Amino acid sequence: MVAQLQHWPGNRAITDDRKRLAVSAYIWARVTQGEYFFSPCPPHIATDPEACRLWKYHRRFTCTWLRQTDDHPHYRELKALLDAHADQLAAAIDAVRSRPVVASRLSE
Q1: CA–CA separation, 14 vs 3, rounded Å?
Q2: Cα–Cα distance between 105 and 52 in angstroms, integer?
Q3: What's the confidence (pLDDT) of residue 106?
Q4: Looking at the domain assignment, is residue 3 inside a domain?
Q5: Residue 66 covered by a domain
Q6: Is residue 34 scored above 80 in pLDDT?
Q7: pLDDT at residue number 76
Q8: How far does CA 4 lie from the centroid of its chain?
Q9: Which residues are CB-neighbours of 78 under 8 A, at least 6 positions away?
Q10: Do 19 and 8 touch, CB atoms closer than 8 A?
Q11: The pTM is what?
Q12: Which residue from 68, 71, 69, 58 is spatially nearest to 15, judged by alpha carbons?
């Protein structure tokens, strides 16, 4: 997704693994229709208190910028991509949940 974003002069936006982890919380919140601060910490850092603390910091920072997109064109473009991706995920989840359960599958 980052490759699809336009490069803006003076852009100091985070584009490394910190942003990938932070936007996962944004996507989680959009798909679940919840709040990003309830998103679960990624399992590979959950056992490291310092890594989890940094993740929470970057999650808050990134999600704040995504909510206030008028101030930063990078986050405005990123938000549109993330919203589209989250909506696709939610639709895929809803499609699986709406399939009828066949009685023969219940007995397996």
Answers
A1: 13
A2: 40
A3: 52
A4: no
A5: yes
A6: yes
A7: 85
A8: 16
A9: 1, 2, 5, 13, 23, 66
A10: no
A11: 0.70
A12: 58
Domain count of the fold of the chain: 1
What residue type is 44 in one-letter code?
H
How many angstroms from the chain centroid is the CA of residue 9?
25
Contacts of 51 (CB under 8 A, 6+ apart): 45
Tens digits of per-residue pLDDT, 64-101?
Answer: 888 887 777 878 888 889 999 999 999 998 887 666 65
Q: Is 52 a member of any domain?
A: yes
- Could you tell me the two tokens for 17? 């693994």
Q: What is the pLDDT of residue 77?
A: 86
**Per the domain annotation, does 51 fall within a domain?**
yes
What would the two tokens of residue 84 be? Answer: 């589209």
Longest distance between any two alpha carbons in the chain, whole Å: 61
HSE, side-chain direction, 13 A CA sphere, residue 41: 16
Q: Residue 67 belongs to what domain range?
A: 33-96
Q: pLDDT-based confidence at 48, cuts 50/70/90?
A: very high
